[in-house]
Amino acid sequence: MKKIAVIILAVSVILSVFAAVFGGRLKREENSMNDSEESRVKIVTTLFPLYDFARQVGGGEADISLLLPPGSEAHSYEPSPQAIASIQSADVFIYTGKEMEPWVAEVLEAIAGSNLIVVDSSSGVNLIKLDSDEDEESGHEGDDTGHSFDPHIWLDFANAAVIVENIASGLEAADPGRGHTYKKNAENYKNKLFELDANFKESLSDCERKDLVHGGHYAFGYLARRYGLNYVAAQGFSADSEASPKTLVSLVEMVRQKGVRYIFYEELIDPKIARTIANETGAELLLLNAAHNIAKDDFEGGATFLLIMEKNLINLRKGLGCR
Predict the structure, then answer these.
(1) Strand 92-95 and strand 117-120: pairing?
(2) Quick one: CATH architecture of 2-199?
(3) From the centroid of its chain, how far is CA 266?
(4) Confidence band of 242 (pLDDT split at 50, 70, 90)
(5) Which three-class secondary structure state does DSSP give residue 277?
(6) Where in the chain is the domain with CATH 3.40.50.1980?
(7) Whole-angstrom distance, CA of residue 152 vs CA of residue 122
């Protein structure tokens, strides 16, 4: 966190100097812009799901950017000076919550007093609380009650709908004149999420097995809770956590005893743990994409949250032997 504090101080100094030297010229250039360009809301998001949700809600009325560089791992991310400057100059900043982005509190405190609209996506969602052992393993600091929560909130599609509502409210606060449009876009997208949820429920209701074995970090707790799956993962809630030998032995035994045929691995991370379990048991590997972030080619190719989840459903049906 000390590193972030130094970055924030440096960014503040640079922006102050920039404003003093170039402020007048920028103001003249701004006045020469047409009305539509001037009124476009600038939105900065942390993770890909939030970026895509904001894109759906904002439509063509907003400029939306993703802080997390495509292809990079989400849990270990810390903002660069450019990222902090981007947040400071935005109209709306959307983040997942303090569990996923603990650095946000310090950044927001440093830029307090600005007109920035801040959207905490976790507000109002149905959180999974971690027990004390999981708290310690995940490395999360917890809230005022001493508890912490699974940060992968977007993987329960009912939660995703709440996140979309939170984003629409944030955009309306920043741009009241287009509030009706944002709300309409949000309702349309929520209906797509509800349809996706219904497809998952129906498709996963009649399967040979309910055991979802994941050779990665504990990212799919919300999805498993939503659809009644028995979920086990090799690592804790952070991709940086390590899988203990005891855990690996236990997972190998479980796979053999229950006849699990597929081990799932996640996006953008070397599936060495999943591969180890598969090699020991004769199981095959299948991708299950938590959508924290996406590869550069996918980002440039217009990948969407809905499309990623539809591909997940295909692999889940195969991996669980659904009829």
Answers:
(1) parallel
(2) 3-Layer(aba) Sandwich (3.40)
(3) 14
(4) confident
(5) helix
(6) 2-199, 205-320
(7) 10
What residue has token string 């995703």?
A: 160
Record the tokens describing residue 72, joined without a space.
């990079």
Helix, strand or coil for residue 60?
coil
Burial class (CB in 10 A: 0-12, 13-18, 19+), 317: middle
- Burial of residue 268 (CB within 10 Å: 0-12, 13-18, 19+) is middle
> What pLDDT is recorded for position 5?
52
Question: Which one is predicted more confidently, 9 or 302?
Answer: 302
Q: Exposed, middle or buried, 306 (CB in 10 Å: 0-12/13-18/19+)?
A: middle
Amino acid identity of residue 114, one-letter, is S
Pair of tokens at residue 86: 């981007």
As a whole number of angstroms, the distance between CA 163 and CA 169 comes to 10
Q: How long is the chain?
A: 323
Sequence letter at residue 36: S
Residue range 1-56, pLDDT digits in tens: 555 555 554 545 444 434 433 444 444 344 444 445 558 999 999 999 999 999 99
153-203 tens-digit pLDDT = 999 999 999 999 999 999 999 999 999 999 999 999 999 999 999 999 999
Give the residue-averaged pLDDT of 112-129: 94
Range 205-320 classified under CATH 3.40.50.1980 = yes
